[in-house]
Amino acid sequence: MGKQLSPASREGARQFPYLRVANVHEGRIDVSDVNTMGFSAAEREVYKLVPGDILLNEGQENLRMVGRSALYQGESGAYCFQNTLIRFRAGAEVIPEYAQAVFVRWRSQGVFAGIAEKTSISHLGGNRFGALLFPVLPISQQRRIVDVIEAMSAQERAIEASIAKLESLNAAVMAELWDLECGSFEEVVVFGPQNGIYKPGSSYGLEGTPIVRIDSFRGGPSDFTRNLLRVSLSRGEVDRYGLATGDVLINRVNTPELVGKSTAVGKLVEPVVFESNMMRCKLLTERAVPAFVETWLGSPTVKRYFRQRAKSAISQASINGSDVRGCPFPKLDVTGQLEFLDRLAMVREQQRLERAELAKLGTLKRGVIDDLLGGTS
User: I want to staple 94 with a disulfide (CB 3.0 to 4.6 A). Which of 90, 265, 308, 341 is the partner?
Assistant: First the structure.
């Protein structure tokens, strides 16, 4: 167990960096935000980390995260560690990378959760951890397991690097919009902004017309063909507030961070209406492509604009029709909008494929590790 943080150690001399729970993630240590406390020369000898040490989270609010572990591969003695972590230092009969693979498997199987002391924060405990029976295989077998895991991890890192490059490319494509001359959004709107319908809670039930509410979309592409609440409406109300494919919805009341979140209505399988905390705009199809409008309204430029225009109340902010009409909008014709969307779609489709491949590899890796360690439980 590491050193306990105390008022004396916070203010004491010989301040030295130490690692805590926030620094230890599954399979990696993040030293971008490291705290310091006082360590004497003797304490630094006891609590210093050396390459090959494994740190495990001793306590977590989430029981399944207890025992989350990572291998320390930094400079010897560069950091100490707090008592919110447990250090495992392998003996001569155990390869550290093999031990960490065992700990990852134990956490995924619920071994650590099963022995943890369960309070408001679940604690693994040094003694309970130390009492676990550790599977000591021959070194040659440990090395084979480590080599297989490392080979698959190298593939994961390569895909992650590719995803990071694609994210940079995505940002570069989006940046094409920032230098465009802008007019106002009202120039591409044929109808609206129109506020949605308000109905009391008693009007909602299992039957009626599906209604888009504040939590029905996150911003960006949405699906209004399922999982919507229903509300009792007259035929006239459905006609007045009914959505059509290509309509743009803009959230007018929300938290300051989410006010103005937007989506373009896609496929509909039955009449759908929208609630009063959002506005609907119908676009001039010869001037604007719904998917482009959706992308633009989700950009940092527009989010910043809506935050500046928002009227604040307690924990909420609101925008009005005038704010939406005056929102900047690029002076880009439909052909240019479609060409931009094509470029963006190519990058995002490749990102989707890479993420799917990473997820598939992760599943395969867990299966291989289970097979390799299957006889060690």
Answer: 90
Calculate the CA dihedral of residues 182, 184, 189, 191 and round it to 10 degrees.
170
3-state SS record for 21-55: HHHEECCEECCCCCEEEECCHHHHHHHCCCCCCEE
CA dihedral 137, 139, 144, 148 (to 10 degrees): 80
Asked if omega into 330 is within 30° of 0 (cis), the reply is: no
Whether 195 shows a pLDDT value over 80: the answer reads: yes
pLDDT of residue 321: 94
Environment class of 15 (CB within 10 Å of its CB; exposed 0-12, middle 13-18, buried 19+): middle
- Burial class of 110 by CB neighbour count within 10 A (0 to 12, 13 to 18, 19+): middle
User: In degrees rounded to 5, what are phi and psi of residue 42?
Assistant: -70, -40
Residue pair 261/217 in contact by the 8 Å Cβ criterion: yes
Report d(CA 64, CA 56) in Å as an integer.
Answer: 13
Q: Which CATH class is domain 7-136?
A: alpha beta
Q: Do domains 7-136 and 182-331 have the same CATH topology?
A: yes
In tens, the pLDDT along 312-339 reads 877 789 999 999 999 999 999 999 999 9
Question: Using CA atoms, how far apart are residues 317 and 252, in angstroms rounded to an integer?
Answer: 8
Query: What is the rounded distance in angstroms from the CA atom of residue 88 to the CA atom of residue 130?
Result: 9
Contact 284, 190 (CB under 8 A): yes
Mean pLDDT of the chain: 92
Read off the pLDDT band of 376 (50, 70, 90): low
- CATH architecture, domain defined by 182-331: Alpha-Beta Complex (3.90)
Residue with token string 């920032």: 178
